[in-house]
Amino acid sequence: MSGAEPAAAGAERLFIGGEWVAPDGGHYDVINPATEEVVGRAPEASRAQVEDAVAAARDAFGGWSRTAPEERAAVLDRAAEVMRREFVPYAELAQAESGATTGTARAMQVGVSVARFQRYARGALEPVEAGLPPQVNGAGPMGKAGVVGAVAVRRPVGVVACITSYNNPWANPAGKVAPALAMGNTVVVKPAPQDPLSVYRMAEALAEAGVPPGVVNVVTGARPEVGEAAVAADGVDMVSFTGSTAVGQKIAEECGRGMKRQLMELGGKGAALVFDDADIASAVAGIGTTFSFYSGQICTAPTRVLAQRGIYERLVAGLARYAARLTVGDPRDPGTVVGPVISAAHRDRIESYAELAVKEGARLVTGGERPAVERGFYVAPTLFADCTNDMRAAREEIFGPVVVVIPFDDEEEGIALANDSDYGLLDYVWSGDVARAFRVAGRLRAGGVGINTVGRNMEAPFGGFKRSGVGRDVGSYALHAYSELQAVVWPG
Fold first, then answer.
1. Could you tell me if 192 and 277 lie in one domain?
2. In terms of domains, do 482 and 424 share one?
3. pLDDT in tens, 119-168
């Protein structure tokens, strides 16, 4: 069963080759983490349907890759217009399936998606050629003496499997799909199983915007076999993945066997170095976003605080006061700051880390108990002090509203502690001495460093060192990530 229109609300269909297709594996429930009610029913694709989606993307690649950049830009701009028109219902759906607060669902989920489609509409028009200096060659086995010109040209990679994270069902897919399409690639999107419904609305917006059949395909499933099929398919040229390091390692192994390009944005355990001369209020407000932003379910969060001893107790007290003031509850309530985490299983995992931290000798300052909320998967903002860098709670990504604080004596020790981690995504430095802050930033083994801020520059390259990932995206760097370099040479 297929058709030109999406299924009725509550029973979604797959989007393959421009058609809405009934899933071979039936449907599974998508649960609202705030209410534990069913938001809708997501389709369970079969391996054959994933392969159909890849084949559709492969068939569409030739035509789409040869379209004029202006045409690709127009499609992306029109998609952004549809998202703006449907902004409120899209945000309501994102909130229902992810548990985000209203402000986050609107500004950071749908709002960022709109901005990314607009950005890569402009990106489709960026030059793809870079002229190289001519080379003078003497006569020899390769021919007569002469001047050889050259140009480096960025070409589309081909079919990209986009496997997205659950913490942002709009911005994360948009950050993959929009630059990939801008560069002339076609995509098969496999959303996170917890909140996939928003990505089908993104597909609707793109279809209305005029994206040709097969350029964008969406397949979902609660079973890991669906994502595995997308990664392993022979027709896939590149895998773009956001998620845990453990899953990323498995994907990288499969990509290695097929020599597929990969872009991996993996886990984080962001170190926040706070020096004695820091603005404590600024540091508290920045670190405190771990408790509230996505309820700590974000890889860039400053979850591992390294505090110089001169301000250690003041910083711990400030963070405790900050956490205690945060309202936990229904994300639809305007007063709510901390919503639920994505699932009961993830809530239990976070709570187990809190119990482990106490056993390891950490001092529980605030939180640690389950909030008194009748329904939903809630975790109280939790702060641990007197931690050491060898505790599992300090080394492993918890992905929840949990902050650990570790003291240090001097700059060298602080840098050593920060770098003593398997991760290296985003670190942070708070200091009143700007020269020192930049000096320290230069020695941190992280893909990005925030100085006296947790803010982001959305043209700056984003990605990680060590087990935090492979490659860079955001801004023009995403256009580079979704392209291959080709050298063209000619006799001058």
1. no
2. no
3. 999 999 999 999 999 999 988 887 888 999 999 999 999 999 999 999 99
Q: Tokens 């609660």, residue?
A: 222
51, 97, 255, 299: which is the annotated catalytic residue? 299
Q: Are residues 439 and 472 in the same domain?
A: no
Told to judge if 162 belongs to the known catalytic residues of this protein, a careful annotator would answer no
Same domain, 292 and 193: no
Catalytic residue among 265, 351, 387, 397: 265
User: Would residue 265 show up in a list of annotated catalytic residues for this protein?
Assistant: yes
The count of domains in the chain is 2
Whether the pTM exceeds 0.85: the reply is yes
Residues 105 and 156 in one domain: yes
SS in 3 state form for the chain?
Answer: CEECCCCCCCECCEEECCEEECCCCCEEEEECCCCCCEEEEEECCCHHHHHHHHHHHHHHHHHHHCCCHHHHHHHHHHHHHHHHHCHHHHHHHHHHHHCCCHHHHHHHHHHHHHHHHHHHHHHCCCCCEEEEEEEEECCECCECCEEEEEEEEEEECCEEEEECCCCCCCHHHHHHHHHHHHCCCEEEEECCCCCCHHHHHHHHHHHHCCCCCCCEEECCCCCHHHHHHHHHCCCCCEEEEECCHHHHHHHHHHHHHHCCEEEEECCCCCEEEECCCCCHHHHHHHHCHHHHHHHHCCCCCCCEEEEECCCHHHHHHHHHHHHHHCCECCCCCCCCCECCCCCHHHHHHHHHHHHHHHHHCCEEEECCCCCCCCCCCCCCCEEEECCCCCCHHHHCCCCCCEEEEEEECCHHHHHHHHHCCCEECEEEEECCCHHHHHHHHHHCCCCEEEECCCCCCCCCCECCEECCEECCECHHHHHHHCEEEEEEEEEC
Determine the structural domain holding residue 322 and report its residue range: 271-462
Give residue 12's pLDDT.
Answer: 94
Which pLDDT tens digit goes with each residue over 382-431?
Answer: 999 999 999 999 999 999 999 999 999 999 999 999 999 999 999 999 99
Which CATH number fits the domain that encloses residue 327?
Answer: 3.40.309.10
Query: Residues 85-113: pLDDT tens digits?
Result: 999 999 999 999 999 999 999 999 999 99
- Where the chain has pLDDT below 70, the residues are 1-10
